[in-house]
Amino acid sequence: MKQTLLIPALAAALLAFSAPAQAADCYADYKAKQDNPLRLHYGVIQLSGDCQKQAARGEIQARIAPDGWTLLNVLSVFGPEGLQQRKANAGPYYLRF
Question: What start and end residues bound the annotated signal peptide (predicted)?
Fold first, then answer.
């Protein structure tokens, strides 16, 4: 009986640790710019890919570029617990893209 329960539990644990970190509740804050005239913004975005700063760079750039924005910096990657503290600073760029 113990082996019957041990095998599925072990398989679930291996899957949990081997799968890449997915962005179910993953967000990033970033800085971006537009030229002519120069405009800057700070934004918060929900990620759909890997929940890592390097992966967030490409995803954010691809999502803001159609509106003429260039990504300057990904400041951090965080979970839902960090949303409220960033909402006021992001203003209209809070979960816009």
Answer: 1-23
Q: Are 84 and 48 in contact (CB under 8 A)?
A: no
Q: Are strands 70-78 and 27-34 parallel, antiparallel or unpaired?
A: antiparallel
Kindly give the parts of the chain with pLDDT less than 70: 1-24
pLDDT value, residue 67: 96
Rounded CA-CA distance 94/48 in Å is 16
Q: What is this structure's pTM?
A: 0.73
* Residues sharing a CB contact under 8 Å with residue 25, sequence separation 6 or more, in sequence order: 79, 80
- Interacting residues of 46 by C-beta distance below 8 A, sequence separation 6+: 23, 26, 27, 95
DSSP result, 42-73 = EEEEE-SSBSSHHHHHHHHHHHHGGGT-EEEE
Please give the Cα distance from 4 to 91 (Å, whole number): 53
Please give the pLDDT value at position 8. 53
